[in-house]
Task: structure prediction
Amino acid sequence: MTAEVAQGVVAIRFANAVNVGLVVIVGVWHLGLDTMLVVRGWQAYEPQAVAAGSWLALTVILVVGSTLLLRSALSGRTARLLAAAALLTGAVALASYPPGEAIGDLSWAGNTVGWFGVLLLIQRPLWELITLLVANTAVMVGFLAADGALDQVAVSRLLAMVCTTSGIQLTFMYLARQLNDGARDATEIAAGQADLLARATADETVHAERRRRYEYLRVRVEPLLRGLAEQRLDPADSVVRRRAAVEAARLRRLFAETDDTPHPLLHELRACADVAERRGVSVTLLSYGDLPVLPTAVRRELVEGPLLLLAAAVTRARLTVVATPQDVVVSAVVDAPPQVIAESPGPLTVSAMYDQEGDQLWWESRWPAQPVA
Amino acid sequence: MASTTRSVTVAIVDDHPVVIEGIQTWLSEEPRISVVHTGEAVDVAPGIADVLILDLNLHGRLVIGSITTLAAAGQRVIAFSQFTEQRIVLESLEAGACGFVAKNEGRAHLVNAVLAAADDRPYVTPTAAGVLVGDRGASKPQLSTQERTALLWWFQSMSKASVARRMGVSVHTVDVYIRRARVKYAQVGRTAPTKADMLARAIEDGLVTPDEITGYESAAR
Result:
């Protein structure tokens, strides 16, 4: 998992926590407080079926809205539709109150619609919630006016109520959004920093890699080319030719080293085999067992022996790779003169021998795999 | 090694006539072997010949399942294929083939494999040796260090003489290690008359002792 994705998960979890909190608040509000109010004033509502029906309809809206919100499946359209339905149901509920009770002790739906708005419109622009709250207040004012109960006391009660409940709802909405935005910003900044760091590391690696290759070319290949150009080295000399063949194979391996392939070891061996095949050497490459991931340095050393032998092979070469849970064994058997293995073999080399009777060179390197924990 | 003195009959199934003719030419240089059937279809009657050389890929279809049927009826089969993937070699042996010879391994290996199979004796080509030593399957038998080394070096060098010199033992001993490793593979997986015959012959030859092959008995139950 990349840092970016991990940070994104943190932001999503944060938003989820806010949403869960919201669902709990609105749930307790409606199923607890509203239910209590409706039951307590049951005798006063007329018709009772409308009061019960609107309570039930709001419950359905609550369940649907909460489920969609928690599953991150609440689209803007659905949210607005459900909010409008809540507003309408609230108005229907008001119709069942006794006259003048739109903001009285028997009133329950007005505040609930506001909280529903917070729940449903949390991911929407703030003005949508404000619109809902204004419309909700307008409905209450409308009912009070229709009942002829819009006196001074009612107006001041209404103002107080609007200021407190709508104020709290808007504040809650505002804070939740601030928190979410903060989390998102933090996430984006962290991801940006991680990205920058990763890019810097990659750049450094590429740079180091280029330096290494350049260094190699400077030390090994340049003197050879310079010698040939200045005619100090004779291309007809078999030693010069073998040196050229080895360096050609090393260069091919060097460039194959950074290729993205499923089996880099085999890829590098094939690159060396390819150079030998161009000289007319018949090469067989066989590999059995599942190769583990090998560090570049290990691959470099495992390939070195076969590379030297391939460059010296006269007509045939057999390369084999066997991977077991214990080790990775690379071997090369070629028809070549014994002086090829004068170069000191590395620590992974098990055996580098000239089989006089078989008149062939036989090189074996072995990398002990780490024991499986 | 293969010490048979009697004549051996061979059937060849391959979907390429040129391969059949090539195999016939190879085998004709060996007086003990006579080819009694050639064909492109795998639906031969078991017992058609002492040894059946079967191309694993007939008209684009792998016929490893047919080895199971033939081996169950006691027909000795040598899997002969240009495909040398580990899975294919192991499945052929598991199905009850006496041996596996890669098409690029040449005449000597095929002739040796045929003569060995006719006597229910194991013969492991370098390719098959590489497959066995690289096997990390759950049911692979426990091989001794010498057996593993002999298989690995036989795979690497294709010369038992070179392996013998490097191990500091005789060529015969190298061959014993390789054959013992192969016989251990006849004890794992599903049973087949061809595997039982190979084990029986291995005991008779003193290659393994009956105590060493309890694995076969338990697998049979």
Summary: The mean pLDDT of chain A is 84. The longest helix of chain A spans residues 152-229.
